[in-house]
Amino acid sequence: MTAQQTTTRRRPAENKAIPLRHPGRWVFATVLVLLVAVFFIDAAKRDAYHWDIYFQYLLDTRIAIAALHTLALTVLAMLLGVVLGSIIAVLRMSPNPVLQGVAWLYLWIFRGTPVYVQLVFWGLLSSIYQMVNIGVAEIDLNDVLSNMFLLAVLGLGLNEAAYMAEIVRAGIQAVPEGQSEASKALGMTWWQNMRRTVLPQAMRIIIPPTGNELISMLKTTSLVIAIPYAGELYGRSTDISNSIFLPVPLLLVAATWYLVITSMLMIAQYYLERYYSRGSSRQLTTRQLAALADAEGQPPRNVTVGSELTDGSQS
Questions:
Q1: d(Cα 37, Cα 21) in Å, to the nearest integer?
Q2: Residue 10: partners with Cβ closer than 8 Å, 6 or more residues away
Q3: Which end of the chain is more exposed for a tag (fewer CB within 10 A), N or C?
Q4: 157 is a domain residue
Q5: Domain assignment of residue 36, yes or no
Q6: Can you spell out the DSSP letters for 161-219?
Q7: How far apart are CA 194 and CA 95, in angstroms?
């Protein structure tokens, strides 16, 4: 290699970029902080908020138990929604037209009607079906349909399954078709391909919207009062506020608990997303870095070397 070629292969010196100043951002942020501070100072002085009642009921035992009921409703309804939604998504992508039609009909009904209307219907179910005759015997449904907690879980879970089905279907369709073709070449059936190849790779796409649905489900539990079930956080706060004729402080108590639980769910969602995004790193192996170095004359500064496959790259 001649001196002239060495000169042409040398990387040019980096330019020193000077960041632009944005005084408008700082002015806007300062005004926003001042407005928020003024709001909180004004709210602290207003008697209508009844801060003494707020702190009195913030850690009340009835409110804490209602928060546990809210968490139980959220977790059970989401489990039902995720499991049933995954089944519906797979059925909709099945080559069987009958299964596709059943899945489409389910989505049409539960996505086309408001969740509040569905919960009201579930609450009225006991007045429609007291007894079911199956020909050889009669089944009494009064005990089952009088359990308002169970009806709340079913109402929320069946509605959530319709939305989770679309999330799961989008994640499955985002997996490259070559993955399924490779599984078929190995002799896997359609179900084995879904279970062992497609769904594990689709989790990276499914997890973020599922976390959002979980947080949304937590807040949707406040609608189960339509069944009626008043053992969750909003229903219990409403009962207490009706007894003391002070709705504002109890609404603030419920909002505080919702914020705390939502914050914990957001933290859990962050770590879960990071766990499933491990395979999407842009980290380069030793062999890939060597190929880049041969192409550019020297290793680029904006890449890192992966420790995995290091031994294999030397063979």
A1: 26
A2: 297
A3: C
A4: yes
A5: no
A6: HHHHHHHHHHHHHTS-HHHHHHHHHTT--HHHHIIIIIHHHHHHHHHHHHHHHHHHHHH
A7: 13
The enclosing domain of 283 has a CATH number of 1.10.3720.10
**Is residue 190 a part of any domain in this protein?**
yes
Average pLDDT of the residues in 174-202: 80
**What is residue 278's predicted lDDT score, i.e. its pLDDT?**
65
Count the domains in the chain.
1
Question: Averaged over 113-117, what is the pLDDT?
Answer: 93
> Is residue 203's pLDDT more than 50?
yes
Angle 199-204-206 (CA atoms, 0-180°, nearest 5)? 70
Full domain range(s) for residue 244:
51-298
Joined together, the tokens standing for residue 232 give 């969750």
- Encoding tokens for residue 113? 């009607």
Beta bridge partners of 138: 133
Q: Per the domain annotation, does 60 fall within a domain? A: yes
pLDDT digits (tens, 9 = 90+) for 264-315: 989 988 887 777 666 555 555 566 666 666 655 555 555 555 554 444 444 4
Per residue in 128-173, pLDDT tens? Answer: 887 777 767 777 777 778 889 999 999 999 999 999 999 988 888 8
CA distances from 115 to 79, 85, 155, 157, 285 (A): 17, 16, 8, 10, 50
What is the rounded CA–CA span in Å between residue 141 and residue 221? 24
